[in-house]
Amino acid sequence: MSDENIQLVRNAAQQRILFSRHALIQMNRPERMISTDEVRDVILNGEIIEDYPTDPRGHSMLIFGSAEINRPLHVVCSPKEDYLAIITAYLPDPDEWGDNFTKRVKK
């Protein structure tokens, strides 16, 4: 994916990161418990694996990375002028994403 897009994400994150209500609910589910530090780590070190330029919430992207406890993590975010909106964060399902968690499995 575009180096320009990941730079937009990281620049917005340096200003401020805002978590949507949906993201916080998903992150705090007992079976996954994803920390804000893990999300920040994925944003700073991950790669964009899907791009959604026509998302109704604004241009958004799906970022894949390994979190601090070495587990795969997906973060959907939308860079804004003065902040990064975290739309959701979740542990990808291997049945849906395959072995490397970067490409969807065709069903």
Summary tags:
alpha+beta, 4 helices, globular
Oligomer: single chain
Structural class: alpha+beta
What's the overall average pLDDT, rounded? Answer: 93
CATH level-two architecture: 2-Layer Sandwich
The run of helices and strands is HEHHEEEEH
Physical arrangement of strands within the biggest beta sheet: 1-5-4-3-2
Q: How far is the N terminus from the C terminus?
A: 24 Å
Total beta-strand segments: 5
Cα radius of gyration in angstroms: 13 Å
How would you characterize the largest beta sheet?
Answer: 5 strands, mixed
Pick out the low-confidence regions: none
CATH class: Alpha Beta
Helix content: 25-40%
The name CATH uses for the topology is: YaeB-like fold
Q: How many separate domains make up the residues?
A: 1
Structure, described:
There is one protein chain. The chain is α+β, with helices and mostly antiparallel strands and 107 residues long. It has one domain (3-92): YaeB-like fold (2-Layer Sandwich). It is 32% helix and 29% strand. The chain contains 4 helices and 5 strands. It has a 5-stranded mixed β-sheet. A hairpin with a 7-residue loop joins β2 (47-52) and β3 (60-66). The radius of gyration is 13 Å and the shape is globular. It starts with a helix and ends in a 10-residue tail after the last helix. The mean pLDDT is 93.
